[in-house]
Amino acid sequence: MEEALKKLYKKLGLRYQSHPWHGIDLGSNAPKEVMSFIEMTPDDSVKYEIDKASGYIKVDRPQKFSNIVPALYGFLPQTYCAESVAEYCMQQSDKTEIIGDGDPLDICVLTERNITHGNIIVPAIPIGGLRMIDDGEADDKIIAVLKGDEVYQKWNDITDCPESIIKRLKHYFLTYKGIPGEESPRVEITHIYGKEEALEVIKRSQKDYLSNYGEIGNELSKATIDLMNLKG
After folding, report:
1. pLDDT single digits (tens) 193-208
2. Is residue 11 part of a domain?
3. pLDDT of residue 20
4. What is the CATH number of the domain that holds 146?
5. pTM of the full predicted structure?
6. CB 5 within 8 A of CB 221
7. 88 occurs within a structural domain
8. Per residue in 42-59, is it b (16+ CB within 10 Å) or e — as a string?
9. Angle between the 195-213 and 83-93 helix axes, to the nearest 10 degrees?
10. What one-character-per-residue DSSP string does 157-224 give?
11. More confident residue, 15 or 116
């Protein structure tokens, strides 16, 4: 029965596009190598993000000022920032009363290639991350390099990344929600962390996804089995 379900799901995948968050697999080598879904590129003057209900890319808001995301920016499929991610954030930052932001885990993918549009999947190698807390919510940003990138593939850890790139990433995330003359959200970056911590954050986000959404696969399998029994 399990093999029959696998074949059925494969056929469905050939006919119907998968939901970017729930339908794309993170990859068999995760967390050391991850399949990332890209929402935005440095060429975008509008902030795009996934519509969680439909899976389509939507316009979140026009960029009000000259904030340019300095990397490919998106999220890791089948991840979720909730209890386990928040617990690790508090453990590593000595902060209290932190909760997960309730979104898939964000990722910035560095590449020397000029990729000009989002709504694509990109294989990436995590090398570190930013421990960001946005108004009391754990909002980590994993930093990765494009797999096979001719220049950046030599970077194995955040310590290999030039400080100028880290400063650009920090500046973007600390300012992209701010509007001059208005009170800005309480956003802080407590740490820049290396590869090992990044892998731990990804593992915890996978755990949170299974805890909160793992029933999706089970419900689909049950519904498929029920349908097959009815037809049988």
Report:
1. 999 999 999 999 999 9
2. no
3. 94
4. 3.90.80.10
5. 0.88
6. yes
7. yes
8. eebeebbbbeeeebebee
9. 150
10. SGGGS-HHHHHHHHHHHHHTT--TTSPPP-EEEEEEE-HHHHHHHHHHHHHHHHHHHTHHHHHHHHHH
11. 116
Q: Write out the E strands in 31-138.
A: 34-40, 46-50, 57-62, 72-75, 99-100, 106-110, 120-134, 137-138
d(CA 131, CA 197): 10
Q: Is residue 211 part of a domain?
A: yes
| Averaged pLDDT of the chain | 87
**Greater confidence, 210 or 230?**
210
The residue behind tokens 């696998």 is: 6
pLDDT given for residue 185 in this prediction:
67
194 part of a folded domain: yes
The count of domains in the chain is 1
Per-residue pLDDT reduced to its tens digit, 169-192: 999 999 877 665 556 668 999 999
CA distances 176 to 56, 70, 114, 115, 134, Å, are 23, 12, 22, 21, 12
Could you tell me the residue range of the domain that residue 143 belongs to? 20-177+184-216
